[in-house]
Fold:
Amino acid sequence: MSTSIHRLLQGCPNELMKEHFSLDSKFRKEQAINYIVETFQRNKILDFVFENFGCLKQHIYINTFNKDFTSFNPSPANQHSNYQKGTETIYNLLFEMNVQAFNKTQKSLEELEYLIPVQIRKSKLHLIVSFNTFERRVINSSGDNFVILDRKNSENSYIEIIKDSLPTGITFVPTDLNKGIKELWKEDKIKAKFLKHLRSSSVSTEVMMEDDNLKDKLPDLYNEALTNPLEKNVFVLVEEKTDIGRFTTEPMKGKISISRYAKNLDSVNDLVISVLDKN
Structure:
């Protein structure tokens, strides 16, 4: 079994793996991964990853089409599976990514190959491309400890590959999420923890203390931010029922980043939908 599958599973929550594969509850993460890799076929492992994609850490790029179309076959060589869900078509893809890493155990530089799960959701207006983010510190099957230094491929390069697979005359651009994010902020559905926005001749950055609410503490800055484009920001979902907590967004790039595991499969998609509904 490829060591890239071993590294892929390090981006999955341990409890989810143990439940799905009926493992001993006392298994540590490395024990669980080694057992899964040694016991189950590659496709069964990949099915598990994509079936539970909504629970993974991810970078989400929301794009808008120039016009509607039906025929789409994204990167056939990279496709794992696809299916229809309501009005959306879901495509599950795998891309290879090469990264430079420092082997802390062997004190050596090495190049590692990663498999990056990518899920595409195509609707009439939008193409949502979500990348599972890999762990920057990993352990291989022999127990060597690695720190990731650099990657040779980027998410943008894979988005370009996806764009190249579109029919002639069809393209997409990043969706400006400023309106949707600001509307959720106005309605107190989210609160800012880190705010970076454009001013007429500068960029303003503000970091809030753990329990402080920027909207209440700095109302003038809040009102100014609503009139200017937002850059890279960290918001916290206010609703108690959510299990995402905080998320990072770069609205002008159409990007939302989730840096923790969700317990509910729909939590991340619900956030994306709520932003687009207000956009």
